[in-house]
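step=encode ok
step=design start
structure_in=
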């Protein structure tokens, strides 16, 4: 297969946290209320967009500077720069598709290069969080997003390697030419992928060296 791009999930794959939403809630002591919001979503009482808005509303009035400082604490996985440098040297596009927040863009781009980083946009006005959020990536639409990115760059999703760790990534797996469940958090995720790989990004890099 002539691969032209790699599409990465972000939280848990290239960062060492489960969720940027959860990480920020922990830092701002809003986690208990956020967990109630999550129960509303998972019980089918609210939509994903409503869930995101409720969570963002818990941070209303927090300064952008404080949010940025929190996000800078998020650890990126060792080997990210080496991995992305290898992929760029092979001429591949690199996509990051996250149901998290675009606040991570700055620290992510400081460490590695991505052609595209798509996530949900936390609205900031006058230096403070408004409590609003533009939802671009949900738990269901990563496959559609991957198709749009491929259309933009002029190739089919079958020429993409998708890397993810959760159920949110399954729609992306189903569109890609090769799917890698990287440290999958559920057996179902591993079963949906072509390859299940456990370890660090250096091990993922070694796998890419074999196939590219």
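sequence_out=
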């Amino acid at each position: 297969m002539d691969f032209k791009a790699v599409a990465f999930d972000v939280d848990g794959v290239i960062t060492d946290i489960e969720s940027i939403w959860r990480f920020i809630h922990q830092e701002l002591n809003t986690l208990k209320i956020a967990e109630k919001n999550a129960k509303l979503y998972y019980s089918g009482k609210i939509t994903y967009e409503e869930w995101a808005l409720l969570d963002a509303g818990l941070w209303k009035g927090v300064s952008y500077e404080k949010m940025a400082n929190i996000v800078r604490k998020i650890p990126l996985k060792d080997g990210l720069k080496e991995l992305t440098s290898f992929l760029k040297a092979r001429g591949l596009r690199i996509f990051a598709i996250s149901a998290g927040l675009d606040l991570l863009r700055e620290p992510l781009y400081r460490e590695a290069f991505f052609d595209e980083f798509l996530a949900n946009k936390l609205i900031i006005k006058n230096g403070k969080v408004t409590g609003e959020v533009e939802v671009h990536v949900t738990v269901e639409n990563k496959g559609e997003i991957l198709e749009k990115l491929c259309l933009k760059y002029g190739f089919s999703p079958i020429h993409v390697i998708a890397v993810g760790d959760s159920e949110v990534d399954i729609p992306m797996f189903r569109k890609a030419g090769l799917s890698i469940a990287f440290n999958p958090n559920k057996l179902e995720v591993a079963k949906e992928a072509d390859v299940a790989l456990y370890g660090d990004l250096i091990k993922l890099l070694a796998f890419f060296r074999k196939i590219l």
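step=design ok
step=annotate ok -> The chain is about 45% helix and 20% strand.
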